[in-house]
Design brief:
Rossmann fold, six-stranded antiparallel beta sheet
Length: 698
């Protein structure tokens, strides 16, 4: 059984012909109305506004004829006017019933159509055949007001849903419509849908980049905030990747298209958000089971109550009819159907605007239950690249001189350590002079000769004779015991200093670990790095549970062990070499993937390189599940309390006079219930997606 993505009702895929496809996925609908809203929401809103205009104008006229004017042929006039509301403004409900019959199912339109038609038809028979109904009772005002109130509630619900889906709409709006295609010496503007992989495009300043591409020439700054959530512009030049939908800020660039259509990062983000908002969570299974039987049970309750009060309770036919109408209208399960999708839509949309992609509602529910968080080290807690942490100078040299000589030796190096040294020198505005000669010593370092003829050596202990660093051995050992890679810098046969490098912590790693600790999680660091490095990182962050030199299989086994102990485990990793562990964890969080998202491994994807976003995602899961439970409690509680009242439970207290207003109040309450669920879900948009947001209680 599939679920209608609009109202949440069950739909039998094998018999339903109300199907729509979007980006390769099939959606099934309980009614034509729902399909139109899905495919053409603007048209549906336009028709709804027109139906409302007619409905309320006629309803006011019918109410005036009922309570004020009392014309001779007033009943006949009301028959025609109420018929216009019933079968014109309310025709959408009958279309829904026909669809339900065709699909051999029942939907919420069934309850509305049966209830309002019963009130109108009974009033019509009293008007046309008064001798058969001596007790009288005209309820044209009831049928028209019910239809008007339900349409008003539907309209308000649509407005709230539009607000809830703003995040998804804004993502879709990022997709540019046209591209400047370079063909020989000409530049031709074409629809983005017509460009192909390999096409050369020109992107001017302030324009959106049409597709995922590689910069071929030119340089610029790109605003990627709408994709990653990062506010700072990113420098782009020859060879850099650019993402479709982002804004080229400063200079004209030529790009070659790498991915188009559904393969682009933006299209994948939109698909993830849409899938998450229409997905199911385990907590909703009870609601789904009840919804599948709800409509026939409600009709049975309404009919039974009406007949019992007529034959056993001695009520007149007109009051018994109102009992039936009240039960059907008050029990319409709109709120039940949208309780989960509304919260998921808001949560996934708001998260996407901050670079957090949630692949399914089930991911959020599991995140809300997690009590163990497992971190990978490299690229997760640390930056994933070495940076210089210490420069030690000896024998009369200064630190800048030591770094200058090391950078000279490494000037031609493409090794990650060599680049770290030259990058540090550039940051300190040290002029790097390329050496006259250089030689790589495999596994030990590099030897170079500068323009002054000095022999410069940069490397590990193997590159130097032991007697050369006898006086600084303790310093080397101290740096190495702290998990740092230590390079010895020598000129001629003399040691002049040390340069230590380490994969340093990300700026927000401490905040992230602290937030998880305060929230009561058990924290593990599981890394393939050696024990010294793992211990040093754990010590800096205050992580007590450490597992080092762990191969991918051993990471997976450790997570499985924690799960066997009854723990719910969230794993945070880079989504590449951590893929098996991410898949095995109850919640896999792929971090720092940027535009090359590790979609297959993580159930939650953090597009910006922020460790703290992992905590934000977990907290969002808790908040979202809280809203879903509140919505379901409201929807169930509303029906559990009000159906017995509609069925006549309060007649002994308030007498049958309560039915003069109860059907109208039922319609108003039904509309209010749906709007309440949507409004409650919209409160998730106030969630703070920043460091320092509200914390989860331990």
């Amino acid at each position: 059984m599939a679920n209608d993505p609009i109202c949440g009702m069950y739909v039998d895929e094998s018999s339903s012909d109300l199907v729509s496809e979007r980006e390769g996925r099939r959606y099934y609908f309980c009614s034509t109305n729902c399909r139109i809203q899905f495919e053409k929401p603007e048209r549906e809103m336009r028709e709804l506004r027109h139906a409302l205009l007619v409905s309320w104008q006629v309803t006011v006229a019918v109410a005036a004829l009922t309570y004020a004017l009392h014309l001779t042929y007033g009943n006949y006039i009301m028959l025609v006017l109420a018929g216009a509301v019933q079968f014109y403004s309310g025709r959408r409900f009958y279309y829904g019933v026909l669809d339900a019959i065709r699909n051999r199912s029942a939907n919420m339109d069934t309850l509305i159509a049966i209830g309002t038609t019963t009130a109108w038809a009974y009033s019509a028979m009293v008007t046309l055949l008064p001798s058969l109904f001596p007790e009288g009772g005209i309820y044209f005002d009831t049928s028209t007001i019910i239809v008007s109130l339900i349409l008003t509630g539907t309209y308000l619900q649509r407005l709230a849903e539009e607000r809830a889906s703003t995040a998804v709409s804004s993502l879709i709006a990022l997709q540019p419509k046209t591209a400047h295609v370079i063909k020989g010496n000409r530049i031709i503007d074409e629809d983005v849908d017509k460009i192909n992989v390999g096409d050369m495009l020109l992107v001017k300043p302030s324009e959106r980049i049409p597709a995922d591409s590689i910069v071929v020439s030119g340089s610029s700054l790109a605003d990627e905030s709408m994709i990653t959530g990062e506010s700072m512009p990113v420098s782009k030049g020859r060879g850099n990747s650019v993402t479709g939908g982002t804004i080229n800020l400063s200079g004209s660039i030529r790009i070659r298209v790498k991915r188009i259509g559904s393969d682009t990062a933006l299209a994948q983000i939109i698909k993830i958000v849409q899938d998450a908002s229409s997905s199911k969570v385990p907590v909703q299974r009870l609601a789904d089971r009840i919804s599948s039987y709800f409509v026939p049970v409600v009709v049975l309750i309404g009919a039974s109550s009406s007949l019992l009060w007529f034959f056993v309770g001695g009520l007149t036919a007109n009051i018994s009819i109102l009992v039936f109408v009240s039960v059907l209208i008050i029990a319409c399960p709109c709120a039940l159907g949208i309780a989960t999708p509304a919260a998921l839509l808001v949560a996934s949309g708001e998260a996407a605007k901050s670079g957090i992609l949630i692949k399914s509602g089930e991911s959020l529910q599991k995140a809300s239950k997690a009590d163990v968080i497992v971190f990978d080290k490299t690229g997760t807690l640390t930056k994933g690249r070495p940076e210089i942490t210490d420069v030690i100078a000896v024998r009369g040299y200064s630190k800048l001189e030591v770094l200058n000589l090391a950078a000279t030796a490494e000037a031609n190096s493409e090794h990650v350590i060599g680049r770290a040294i030259t990058d540090k020198a550039k940051k300190l505005h040290i002029k790097i002079v390329f050496p006259k000669k250089f030689q790589y010593m495999q596994g030990s370092g590099i030897i170079a000769v500068d323009k002054k003829g000095r022999r410069i050596a940069v490397g590990n202990r193997e590159l130097f004779e032991k007697r050369q660093f006898a006086g600084i051995d303790d310093r080397i050992s101290g740096l190495e015991s702290a998990g740092k890679t230590t390079l010895i810098i020598g000129v001629g046969r003399r040691i002049i200093g040390l340069v230590a490098l380490a994969d340093v912590l990300k700026e927000d790693s401490r905040d992230a670990v602290s937030a998880f600790k305060n929230a009561g999680y058990e924290i593990w660091l599981i890394t393939g790095d050696n024990g010294k490095v793992a211990g040093a990182v754990a010590s800096q962050l205050g992580i007590e549970n450490v597992m080092s030199e762990a191969k991918p299989k051993e990471k997976l086994d450790k997570i499985a062990e924690l799960q066997r102990k009854g723990r719910t485990v969230a794993m945070v990793g880079d989504g590449i070499n951590d893929a098996p562990a991410l898949v095995r964890a109850d919640v896999g969080i792929a971090i720092g993937a940027g535009t090359d998202i590790a979609i297959q491994s993580g159930s939650i994807i953090l597009m910006r390189n922020s460790t703290y976003d992992a905590f934000v995602a977990m907290e969002l899961g808790r908040r979202t599940m809280s809203k879903i439970r509140q919505n379901l409690a409201w929807a169930f509680g509303y029906n559990i309390i009000l159906i017995p009242i509609a069925a006549g439970a309060l007649i002994p207290i308030f007498t049958v006079s309560m039915y003069k207003v109860l059907p109208l109040l039922a319609a108003l309450a039904m509309a209010f219930s749906s709007v309440t669920v949507i409004s409650n879900s919209l409160l998730l948009s106030r969630f703070r997606f920043t460091r320092g947001g509200s914390r989860r209680p331990a």
